[in-house]
Specification:
There is one protein chain. The chain is an all-alpha fold. It has two domains: 97 residues, RNA polymerase sigma factor, region 2, helix turn helix motif (Rna Polymerase Sigma Factor, Chain: A), CATH 1.10.1740.10; 92 residues, Winged helix-like DNA-binding domain superfamily/Winged helix DNA-binding domain (Arc Repressor Mutant, subunit A, Orthogonal Bundle), CATH 1.10.10. The protein has eight helices and two strands. The chain has a two-stranded antiparallel sheet with strand order 1-2. The protein is elongated.
């Protein structure tokens, strides 16, 4: 069996047991999501590269010391490390930015709701406008609701993972998503956009 087919946790165990290649596979597997997440918050390419490197440096330190105990939750653990490093950075300079629209794998802004079908039209321009409008609406949400929408729709995280990542209860993360959807629906109605929820 190829190492590429192993789960994150199996690769972590291999790395802990001395297999350096397994870490390279883990980094390759998750680098786009981690870097995109960091860039979403910082909006600074150089700072994002620094935080990205620091994230994996911290991962290596934690694994080498045998302190990793997030079995089966490797990606949320990586995102949590990245978020903590970003928060530490902005605490030092006393300025925390808001989370804007997500960045796709090509480094361009993209809509959170790419997966929502845009009625039965084949008009690409109309779909593109709908996605842009949705992105703008998501950006108008309060930061906590926006963060849950991003994690749920772009990172495909479960509400349990979102709760652990944001240090709140599952009910709180579910509530934030519920209010986000209510707010999005209300804003869509105000702007006479077709509502799908």
């Amino acid at each position: 069996m190829s190492m590429q087919n192993l789960s994150d946790n199996e690769l972590v165990q291999l790395y802990i047991n001395g297999n350096e290649q397994s870490l390279a596979i883990l980094i390759q597997r998750h680098k786009r999501k981690i870097f995109s997440y960091i860039y979403i918050i910082t909006r600074d390419k150089t700072l994002s590269e620094d935080v990205f490197q620091d994230t994996f440096f911290k991962v290596i330190q934690t694994l080498k010391r045998g302190q990793y105990n997030e079995e089966g939750k490797f990606l949320p653990w990586l995102l949590r490390i990245a978020k903590n490093l970003i928060v530490d950075h902005f605490r030092r300079i006393k300025k925390m930015p808001t989370i804007p629209a997500i960045i796709n794998e090509e480094g361009e802004e993209t809509a959170i709701f790419d997966l929502i079908p845009c009625h039965d039209t084949t008009d690409e321009r109309e779909q593109s406008e709908f996605k842009r409008d949705m992105r703008n609406l998501v950006n108008e949400l309060p930061a906590e609701q926006r963060e849950v929408v991003i994690m749920r729709t772009y990172y495909d995280m479960s509400f349990k993972e979102i709760a652990e990542f944001t240090n709140v209860s599952i009910n709180t993360s579910l509530g934030r998503m519920r209010y986000a959807l209510i707010n999005l629906k209300k804003m869509m109605e105000e702007k006479n956009m077709e509502v799908f929820m």
